[in-house]
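hi! just following up on the protien thing from before. the input was this:
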Amino acid sequence: MTASLHHSEERASAVQKAAALGRTFAETAGAHDRSGDFPFANFDALHAVGLLGLVTAPEHGGLGGGLTDALGVISAIARGDPSTALVLSMHYNQHYAIRASGSWPEHLVKRVTQANREGVALLNAAQVEPRVGSPSHGAPPETVARKVGNEWQISGHKNYATGIPLLRWVSVLAVTDEAEPRLGSFLVPTDAAGITVEKTWNATGMRATGSDDIILKDVAVPLEDVIDLAPASEGLKRDPKLGAWYFTLVPAVYDGAARAARDWLLDFVTSRVPASLGAPLATVPRILDGLGQIEVLLATNQRLLRSIAEDFDADRPFGPDAAVVKHIVIENAVTVTMLALDLGGNPGISRDNPLERHHRDALAGRVHAPQNNLLRTMLARQAVAQLGAAASVPHPRKNEEAPRLTVVKAS
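and the predicted 3d structure came back as:
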């Protein structure tokens, strides 16, 4: 069997493996939610079946999966344990960037992908800061990299280092202290001297993601262990096409939580037979209508997520659609869990049942940058700018051909 055929078969079975693991992870998700403990065993299981290397390039020991493959796996895992799925989605986002962006130095590519083959060696970025917030708001980070001899010494404070209990490296966004500052990401081993993890993650939902703070004090990194170092005056550069991974996989996590809520509700209303009714709750018209609303929302989510993933894999242009999908899918997920709570009544809000947990997890989706109000403002400004540009173009004279819109695919 050729290597490419083997990888193709492995990718085809990835969603089935993920679905089986998702059902297993669901058995402990409630306990992790109550304790806030990180689900270490889940990542051992993911590594054992090869899913940590799903999107890593074949030449670096991975399966070479695309966004559609990753979406299928994240959705299946999220239905069982969204916290695990979110950490995995960040790992996939970073590993696909390694494979496709061309900005990672080869020695770092080899280091990270080899560790990913050999064991659980998760990777994520650290960009949000206490005072600055997310870089999506446009402000430069306050984390500073100072050149000392043949190394960088990095000092700063980062929030929300999702997965930090198992991260082998963190890609830390920082500015240099040079006369003309540069901005870039520095690959920092999490066992380096000078790193402190501050246990700050105590959120209402997604409690087992380990999204704690990291504090760096003169953490030494070799000069060559840097990604995308460029003049800070140019701002943070993001590949608009690669952004589809974040805008697809993150909302898929919360869609998974909503599907788990739907699953619980269906079981409840089909098995619950009130004495006053003498039939399952699922026979009540109001219940049926609510279930129908949930199905419409989830079907919409599935179609939207799949369309972006398939467009990306087929190299079709999609403009800002991926960001819009993030907005819609997360809001639909929240609405689904709210409808489920309404239909579930008192049992739905009982902590003895998982429905209220699914709702709390879905609500957490709203915090991911760029948040919905920022997305809407960006889209509104684009629409206004386009209208202004159109108004400034003179109308074609009679018998002249009007200008045609050309769609340019993002690089």
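Residues 396-411 have pLDDT under 50 and may be disordered.
The longest helix spans residues 243-271.
cheers
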